[in-house]
Amino acid sequence: MSLICFGTVALDNIKSPSGLRKNLLGGSASHFAMSARLFTKVHLASIIGEDFPKKYIRFFESQGVDISSVTVKPGKTFAWNGEYDQKDFNTAITLATELGVLEGYIPEINTEHRNVPNVFLANFDPDNQFQFLKLMKRAQLVGMDTMNLWINIKKASVLKLMKKVDLFVANDGEARAITGQTNLIKAAKALRRMGPKLIVVKKGEHGVLFYCDQFMFSFSAYPVEKVVDPTGAGDTFAGGLMGYLSKAGKVNEKVLREAAIYATTLASFNVEGFGVANTRSLTLKEVDARRKILVSFIQP
What distance in Å separates the CA atoms of residue 64 and residue 47, rounded to the nearest whole number? Predict the structure, then answer.
């Protein structure tokens, strides 16, 4: 049961208390793929410019990530410059954004990818997400992510898309912004009424909350001693979640709990290095070792 992710592939310049790194492989789809690849075949759909480094093309290929639905256009690849303060790793300070080839982008996909059953719409303009979903012919499980920017300037488009998806992933701030609810349980219930059957609220260092009509659960995050760069942690979480669900081929409470535990574990690796440094060579054996420790915290 393969999986396709529609999102951004970007070049990031990131500054944190641990240092400065330039021209890192970034973007929601890139981070998603690094964790989802551990469970299933991953296809990416996105757009890059002619300046996109060939070494990153080779890297995706070496990881078994299919990028044949990633379009190359004249112009510059989407670039993001961000900074994190020692006192608040939960909020990135955007220093500059260069849309490049994202301007005027109309989603495209290879014909053979239109029948992929599992679809994730990673953080992107919700109108682009909606256009991409219309290209899919046999989607069985559709998940989506968003961010405060789109909630603030295109809320109607976000709400329109939510009616078409099965799984909605948001952080606590986004959940509150969409629903107007401060209590996260009330926010999760409100999100459910907006369409998606499965609601996942990421709470950063405080873990995750899951809600659906039949059951609800919550647990803490894996404790990380030193956060280096949290960029893409949410996308890494989403990749682990959707990757595991795609591998399982079914959705029930046991599977969802296990998927959320893997997703949480994978996100903890992401924040320990810049960009995809910590997830690019990660093996399932390494993930399972840390997963067991996390489970021991949840179920001693």
Answer: 19
Q: For the chain, how long is the longest CA-to-CA vector? A: 55
Closest to 275 (Cα-Cα) out of 53, 40, 111: 53
The confidence score (pLDDT) of residue 90 equals 72
Percent of the chain whose predicted confidence (pLDDT) is above 70: 100
Give how far Cα 47 sits from Cα of 136, 270, 286, Å: 17, 23, 32
Q: In degrees, to the nearest 5, what angle opens at C-alpha 209 toward C-alphas 181 and 293?
A: 155
Burial of 244: CB neighbours in 10 Å, binned 0-12, 13-18, 19+: buried
- What is the pTM (predicted TM-score) of this model? 0.96
Residues 6+ apart with CB under 8 A from 196: 144, 162, 165, 166, 167, 168
Specify the DSSP element, H or E, that contains 244: helix 233-248
- How many whole angstroms separate alpha carbon 15 and alpha carbon 18? 8
List of domains in the chain: 3-298 (3.40.1190.20)
Pairing mode of beta strands 19-26, 10-16: antiparallel
The answer for residues whose C-beta is within 8 angstroms of residue 22's C-beta and 6 or more apart is 13
